[in-house]
Amino acid sequence: MTDVGTTNAVVEPTRTSAAGESVIKIGYHQNLTNEDLAPLKKQHWTSYNIFAFWMSDVHSVGGYVFAGSLFALGISAWQVLIALLVGIFMVYFLCNLVARPSQQAGVPYPVTTRIAFGVRGANLPAILRGLIAVAWYGIQTYLASVAFGLLALKFWPSLARFDSVDDYGFLGLSLLGWGGFVLMWVLQAIVFWNGMETIRKFIDFCGPAVYVVMVILAGYLIYKAGWSNVHFDLSSGPNKSGWASITALISAIALVVSYFSGPMLNFGDFSRYGRTFADVKKGNFLGLPVNFLFFSILVVCTVSAGATVIGRDSDGNIITDPVHIVDRIDNTTAAVLGVLTFAIATIGINIVANFVSPAFDFSNVAPTKITWRMGGMIAAIGSVLITPWNLFNNPSAIHYTLDTLGAVIGPLFGVLIADFYLVKKKQIVVDDLFSMSPTGRYWFRSGVNPVAVIATVVAAAAGIAIVIEGTTYMASYTWFVGAGLGFAIYSLGMRLLPPSFIHDNPPAPVASAAPAADVSA
């Protein structure tokens, strides 16, 4: 359970919001507090809820294509298996690290960043993560909306003329494409608007439900193709050997970690609801190593059998996009069921990974003016303005965008982990997270920790420089470069720089700063 502190101060009544029930103490500053950001009154998510969260996060259209691509790197099946296991166990370990402070204090990701960046400086990591989520939200919405367009054409072929960007296009998207995108956008907004409890119920049901349909789809394709045509080596050319296979293996591991870097960074937005940290860790284990491995095997079976049943694309490549796989199935019922399933699956991942995060992040910037719901809708509107279909249609832009995002996300992760585990020794003075007092533990210099900002900027700049000047292979490691540099620079800065540089008023040790009940450890 969360420790919201039990001082002698009068405690205000429980506040209920779309993000849950919270407790706001007398003395919490309004510029740092609202019903969505304050510590939860009760944490009730079990390990199954966390497991369902990861199920929704993994089996989307993007996840399908990503997992399939790992089996096509030119390395043998056993090497792919090793890459998957090592990569996902790294994600599991890192998620446990980032989950603890939010579960411990009962607050979302942007509030926990105040521990390292300061009560005002926390807006830097919050805005960066929020903007990244907006970009991903738009791209995922567009990917899933394609399914609705294909479904419409299957039943009403006469709509094909509205699928022309030249004749019926606006901002690079056809009229039919706009229809699917708007429909997908509205469906997600409806689920989100009903609050975290509705989201929890949605992912609790959709996680296993989508798996049922995916197993049926895989079984149907395997039955049609024959088991002899299902294999675990989808590489289009000869397998790599020697040093080339080793570098491809390491690259595959890095890709797994990078793919999950976004939801991993703001996982505290969900771990805050965890009943206990043990529940969170158990849910992470079931949802990451166990779930991802099963999902990957299911993907390769589907893609491999699909290559026999539906053939390859016009360039002779194996089709890994599940929407296009089910669209080519010569069975209307199976195709409709498959398309709708992947649309629902993408709604799940988009809400948990790219809707909830900016909702908290943007609310953190101006708590008195931006609620959790409003923050989410700002992200939803922003996802339209960036016209994600134009980004997706430019492979070069996608490459540089993803690598740049990794370069920015990595330093934030490194700073937060170094601060919580090495500097703060897992201790949180919860009340000070909502205090603008110059003597508060997280005030630093005018509300900003200069060391955290410097570490983030320097590490991110190094990662972006690699993206611009380095090779494509080097760019795939920007998350690791950023996280490592951010961790090292912050740790050394907090240890070697004088307190007068970091704080206006250097705080007293935690033990004497507040009663023991106020310290969450």
UniProtKB/TrEMBL annotation:
It holds the Pfam family Transp_cyt_pur. One of its GO terms (molecular function) is nucleobase transmembrane transporter activity. Signal peptide: none annotated. The chain crosses the membrane at residues 64-94, 134-156, 168-193, 205-223, 243-265, 286-311, 331-353, 374-392, 404-422, 442-468, 474-493. Its main location: membrane. CDD domains: SLC-NCS1sbd_u1. It comes from the Bacteria. It is found in: Membrane. It is a multi-pass membrane protein. InterPro entries: Pur-cyt_permease (IPR001248), Uracil/uridine/allantoin_perm (IPR045225). GO terms for cellular component: plasma membrane. Keywords: Membrane, Transmembrane, Transmembrane helix. Belongs to the purine-cytosine permease (2.A.39) family. This is NCS1 family nucleobase:cation symporter-1. It comes from Williamsia herbipolensis. The lineage of its organism: Bacteria, Bacillati, Actinomycetota, Actinomycetes, Mycobacteriales.
